[in-house]
């Protein structure tokens, strides 16, 4: 995983020396120039508005297409970014109380507010690597107070070749690249993720970018959540995911990074943005 950033000593105690978080030693680069494989469409301006910084990761305020203005707002991040630590393979968390805080950023990347969770609505590292926090404020309240709209979740499967940006609220850094393709299965240590998004090499994300929204340049919608990359060229180990195809063949792509698709979240959100794993079309893992 693009691991959460915590104090180095604490990380070594909790995770072991072999799982120490990645630490940036240079200042973040400026945003790279965007490209698009669809020159016939208008490219949306992608900036930091609606993204958040967690204590150890990145995230964003998101809404499904059918959300109402008075619905409780949601923050999207990774399952491995939740405050209780990495969920085990097969573990699914639903409606767990939380008072976690998030720094809300404006378009320039400046913090304009602190938002607070009422609960972890959903979190898992099984099949995908996602967490959804329900906030104590609605979309309308956030927009009225700070002039910031939530990022919309795309309800459709992303397309190979799409120009994307990975927007890290933690580092206030934007990575630009394209969707290179999809991994049938992505295996890292005890966890396996399905149909993961593989980036082209210019999205060289680092620790702390975990949970960043992956945004389609053309639509401005969230198509995935950034979560991992092969750091050392190892095979299927922690911090070194490998791709496994339908026939069980394994491919290691050293230095390549990945995200988990988010369109599958949309059918699982019902009235008042409540997670309903029994809704038609919802395929998220159940407890």
Model description:
The chain has 287 residues and is mostly beta strands. It has two domains: 115 residues, Thrombin, subunit H (Beta Barrel); 113 residues, Thrombin, subunit H, CATH 2.40.10. It is 6% helix and 36% strand. The chain is globular, with a radius of gyration of 17 Å.
Task: Lay out the secondary structure.
Blueprint: H1 8-15, E1 51-53, E2 58-63, E3 72-77, E4 92-97, E5 101-105, E6 111-124, E7 130-138, H2 139-146, E8 151-152, E9 163-168, E10 173-188, E11 191-199, E12 213-216, E13 222-229, E14 242-244, E15 250-251, E16 257-261
Parallel strand pairs: 2-8
Antiparallel strand pairs: 1-2, 1-5, 2-3, 3-7, 4-6, 5-6, 6-7, 9-10, 9-12, 10-11, 10-14, 11-16, 12-13, 13-16, 14-15
Structure keywords:
287 residues, mainly beta, Thrombin, subunit H, 2 domains, 6-stranded antiparallel beta barrel, 6-stranded antiparallel barrel, 2 helices, 16 strands, 6% helix, globular
Query: Would you identify the regions where 5 or more consecutive residues have pLDDT less than 50?
Result: 7-42
State the distance separating the first and last CA atoms.
22 Å
How many strands, what sense, and barrel or not for the largest sheet?
A: 6 strands, antiparallel, barrel
CATH architecture of the largest domain: Beta Barrel
Summarize model confidence as the mean pLDDT.
89
Number of strands: 16
CATH class placement of the largest domain: Mainly Beta
Structural class label: mainly beta
Q: What percentage of the residues does DSSP assign to strands (E)?
A: 35-45%
Shape: globular
Radius of gyration: 17 Å
Strands ordered across the widest β-sheet: 1-2-3-7-6-5
Q: Work out the helicity level.
A: under 10%
Count of folded domains: 2
């Amino acid at each position: 995983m693009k691991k959460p950033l915590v104090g180095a000593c604490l990380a070594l105690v909790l995770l072991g020396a072999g799982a120490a978080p990645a630490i940036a030693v240079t200042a973040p680069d400026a945003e790279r120039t965007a490209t698009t494989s669809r020159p016939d469409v208008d490219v949306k301006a992608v900036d930091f508005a609606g993204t958040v910084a967690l204590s150890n990761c990145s995230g964003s305020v998101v809404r499904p297409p059918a959300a109402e203005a008075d619905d409780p707002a949601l923050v999207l991040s990774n399952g491995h970014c939740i405050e209780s630590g990495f969920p085990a393979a097969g573990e699914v968390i639903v409606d767990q109380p939380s008072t976690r805080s998030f720094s809300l950023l404006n378009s320039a990347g400046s913090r304009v507010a602190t938002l607070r969770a009422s609960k972890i609505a959903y979190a898992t590292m099984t099949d995908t690597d996602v967490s959804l926090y329900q906030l104590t404020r609605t979309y309308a309240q956030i927009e009225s107070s700070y002039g910031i709209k939530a990022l919309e979740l795309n309800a459709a499967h992303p397309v190979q070749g799409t120009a994307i940006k990975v927007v890290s609220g933690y580092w206030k850094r934007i990575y630009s690249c394209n969707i290179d393709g999809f991994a049938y299965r992505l295996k890292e240590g005890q966890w396996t993720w399905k149909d993961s998004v593989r980036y082209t090499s210019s999205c060289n994300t680092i620790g702390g970018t975990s949970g960043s929204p992956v945004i389609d340049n053309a639509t401005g919608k969230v198509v995935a959540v950034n979560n991992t990359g092969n750091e050392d060229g190892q095979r299927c180990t922690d911090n070194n995911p490998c791709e496994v195809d339908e026939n069980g063949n394994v491919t290691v792509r050293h230095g390549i990074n990945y995200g988990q698709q988010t369109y599958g979240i949309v059918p699982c959100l019902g009235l008042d943005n409540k997670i309903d794993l029994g809704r038609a079309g919802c395929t998220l893992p159940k407890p």
